[in-house]
From TrEMBL:
The gene is asd. SUPFAM superfamilies: Glyceraldehyde-3-phosphate dehydrogenase-like, C-terminal domain, NAD(P)-binding Rossmann-fold domains. Its EC number is 1.2.1.11. Keywords: Amino-acid biosynthesis, Diaminopimelate biosynthesis, Lysine biosynthesis, Methionine biosynthesis, NADP, Oxidoreductase, Threonine biosynthesis. This is Aspartate-semialdehyde dehydrogenase. It comes from Methyloraptor flagellatus. GO terms for biological process: 'de novo' L-methionine biosynthetic process; diaminopimelate biosynthetic process; isoleucine biosynthetic process; lysine biosynthetic process via diaminopimelate; threonine biosynthetic process. PANTHER family: ASPARTATE-SEMIALDEHYDE DEHYDROGENASE (PTHR46278:SF2), DEHYDROGENASE, PUTATIVE-RELATED (PTHR46278). It catalyses: L-aspartate 4-semialdehyde + phosphate + NADP(+) = 4-phospho-L-aspartate + NADPH + H(+). It comes from the Bacteria. The keyword NADP applies.
Amino acid sequence: MGYKVAVVGATGNVGREMLDILAERGFPADEVVALASSRSIGTEVSFGDKTLKTKVLEHYDFSDTDICLMSAGGAVSKEWSPKIGAQGCVVIDNSSSWRMDPDVPLVVPEVNADAVAGFTKKNIIANPNCSTAQLVVALKPLHDAFGIQRVVVSTYQSVSGAGKDAMDELFSQTRAVFVTDPIEPKKFPKRIAFNLIPQIDVFMEDGFTKEEWKMMAETKKILDPKIKLTATCVRVPVFIAHSEAVNIEFEKPVTADEARDILREAPGCLVIDKREPGGYITPYEAAGEDATYISRIREDATVENGIAMWIVSDNLRKGAALNAVQIAEVLVNRKLIQPKAAKAA
């Protein structure tokens, strides 16, 4: 007996990616249901070699569904995740709504898979922010070995992190530059084509943006509350994959070679680090891949026990859809949930 899985937000960037990854990884599902809002009813989405017609979330009964992958935005999740969880279906939520709830585990399987077991309080497990997910995959093995004290990170985040409309805006603005059409920012506060925007999400009272705060708070919850982290998050004119320039201060002495060796063996990490032109990863190459790529590993002599490095990952995959499916795999592999159909039989 396999599991019954629902994907909410199945017509969006991440929802479609979730369906692809469930099929790619051969997730043990007997049935997969695509759900979306009423305006998307009947829209067809791909699942492996099948085509699914989307059903309406509001009319769907979750009582016989085992796992719900939720990627429909914060407002939908806030309203629906508790209702779905109350019907005995485990929600793996991709929004920011539940991440900092003390009764909801915030999980990156390569980093803190054991935290998954805490799902029983609300039947909800949270996926971290896309920029946090790839960061902690790279930080975890180094923290275990040398003890991280402080992290300074600057992100270079692709437009897909802001949804399909944002990708369309980059495309149309880029075209407009070449044909000298007027450029109108809609999704972003300023033009994104051939430009950088040092604002992701809203500003907070202290001058940081909500995205920067998320990275700080989520890293502490997932990895270690004692780690100090400061972030500057920047939107760049790249379609897919987020990049991060990271500077880390450790408690113990560490060389670049030691860091490189540890990261080469770490789950989810792929080190591409040759000190020559092109001997590093770029977002273009990371798009469509599962790994968190690490390049430019070097010692930073301006602080004691410092390492600098470059991290790139596909934000739609490891930053969202892949991480959610990996959480579902932890639930199944550790036998934390049983298929409802098997119980009924």
